[in-house]
Amino acid sequence: RGDENGYVDIDWDTLGFGLTSTDYMYKMKCFKDEEFAEGKLIPYGNIELSPAACVLNYGQGIFEGMKATRRENGKIVFFRPDGNALRMKKGAERMCMPSPSVDQFIDAVKQTALANKRWIPPPGKGSLYIRPLLLGTGATPSVAPATEYTFLIYASPVRNNYFKEERAALNLYVEDQFDRASRGGVGGLKSITNYAPGMKPLTKAKNNGYSDVLYLDSVTGKYVEEVSACNIFIVKDKIISTPPTKGTILPGVTRKSMIEIARDQGFKVEERQIAVEELLEADEAFCTGTAVAVVPVGSITYQGKRVEYRAADTNSMFKKLLSIYVGIQNGQIEDKKGWIVEIN
Ligand SMILES: *Cc1c(COP(=O)(O)O)cnc(C)c1O
């Protein structure tokens, strides 16, 4: 199936960020107090759940997000998949769920990518976004961990943000009414419960012309945390700073990689609390995440005050870091750290 080059027949140049369903999904089940054993690929489609499934009633579920990318030489690669596997394991522990081992996770995402190979965009056109889910699918009449769990993976081709939207900088709105995460909560994991509460502030921000919301810490309301689904960095006098991930901020694989890349380039990177006032003084700001890669921030608005940054500056830190990150991903820069995992 697929055309003579093995691709599905779609126009890769008009690929967006929406969901395009692919041929196969991966499914693996296990009971409470047992371990995941064997999963399999099945045709993509709807799943059946008990109305009393724990995930539907009490939100016992976590997810991951990663990309499989096709290189010019035909190789299909993942970027640091162990980071996603470990994060899911940690998240599962906090949410009282059994989780696939790191090896099981990586094997399953590989299988999913290869089964949907004809949907992996040609080099430079995008990637196959892969979404692993771990859900408490057993029925639970009261608030208690489910008796049965499902690890499910689906995939969708998406375009690469950095080719079409490189100049489309984010206009962030600092939210000082709604919080994203609280002390002792689950802000530090990709728990499904973290995202619906963000829809109201995000909708409000979008209706007012902003691209996304920048959240502050919920204890003092003074310090910057992160954006709806990406981490934030600021640059001042060539020093890069980002808030520390201590439970309320999602520890992004891209964030961690960007810190390492910047330090390898000889730049100073500080993981420290960033007071919201510091945003007004910064030379530059950018966001990181698997979906956006590295994207510049064009403006930040806080309590009616708007600061703008020179996002498109050719000497910007964002551009330097983005080009190295993209270079390592597409193979133009040697991967000295073992971040790239070939899957075919
Ligand atoms: C997924 C996510 C990120 C980015 O994490 P990556 O591993 O870099 O993709 C940042 N913040 C939130 C809230 C997220 O859900």
TrEMBL record:
GO terms for cellular component: cytoplasm. It catalyses: L-valine + 2-oxoglutarate = 3-methyl-2-oxobutanoate + L-glutamate; L-leucine + 2-oxoglutarate = 4-methyl-2-oxopentanoate + L-glutamate; L-isoleucine + 2-oxoglutarate = (S)-3-methyl-2-oxopentanoate + L-glutamate. GO terms for molecular function: branched-chain-amino-acid transaminase activity. SUPFAM superfamilies: D-aminoacid aminotransferase-like PLP-dependent enzymes. PROSITE patterns: AA_TRANSFER_CLASS_4. It comes from the Eukaryota. CDD domains: BCAT_beta_family. This is Branched-chain-amino-acid aminotransferase. It comes from Chenopodium quinoa (Quinoa).
